[in-house]
Amino acid sequence: MIAEHVARWLQAHPLSPVHVDCATAVMLKILDGKCKMGEGEKLVMAHLYDAVRLQTGVCLGEDIHRLIATARDLANEGLRNYIYEKRVLAESEISRPVMKGFKAMIRAEGLLDCVALEVGEAA
Predict the structure, then answer these.
(1) Which one of 25, 44, 81, 94 is separated from 103 by 20 to 30 angstroms, measured CA to CA?
(2) How open is the CA angle 96-82-123, to the nearest 5 degrees?
(3) What are the distances in angstroms from CA 11 to CA 51, 73, 111?
(4) pLDDT, tens digit (0-9, with 9 covering 90-100), for 95-123
(5) What's the pLDDT score for residue 74?
(6) Nearest to 44 by CA among 116, 118, 112, 122
(7) Cβ(98)–Cβ(15) under 8 Å?
(8) Residue 14 burial (10 A CB sphere; 0-12, 13-18, 19+)
(9) 3-state secondary structure 59-88
(10) Which backbone phi and psi does 71 adopt, to 5 degrees?
(11) How would residue 77 be classed by pLDDT, with cut points 50, 70 and 90?
């Protein structure tokens, strides 16, 4: 299951506070509909976000986490536009090299490897 894979991955690769912010920003991008990842990768990233959302980030805090929780329950066009604005602001607080490094690290370290194994499952 994806949740177990993510939990094991996090034990081996604990995220730094800035990478917690990166995971949060990816979750915002998924919710605003602009994420270009495949559905399986989005599911893995949502599990990653859920696993680290209570950890302290550098710049993204409880207000963003409340917005994400609301968006998961009440997805509509107006809210997606608001999330897009918040995501763009969040990404402006995370340097481009840090975000690129985070994405490269999760791929290189196998976080997304379970996608091929879980195709078609909503674990």
Answers:
(1) 81
(2) 75
(3) 11, 29, 12
(4) 999 999 999 999 999 999 987 655 444 43
(5) 81
(6) 112
(7) no
(8) exposed
(9) CCCHHHHHHHHHHHHCCCHHHHHHHHHHHH
(10) -65, -35
(11) confident
Angle subtended by helix axes 77-93 and 62-73, to nearest 10: 150
Tokens, residue 51:
């696993």
Share of the chain above pLDDT 70, in %: 93
Return the ∠ at Cα 6 (arms to 69 and 28), rounded to 5°: 30
Structure tokens at 20: 């917690």
Q: Which two tokens stand for residue 4?
A: 């177990």
In one-letter notation, the amino acid at residue 26 is V
Residues in the chain: 123
Predicted model pTM: 0.90
Cβ pair 46, 30 in contact under 8 A: yes
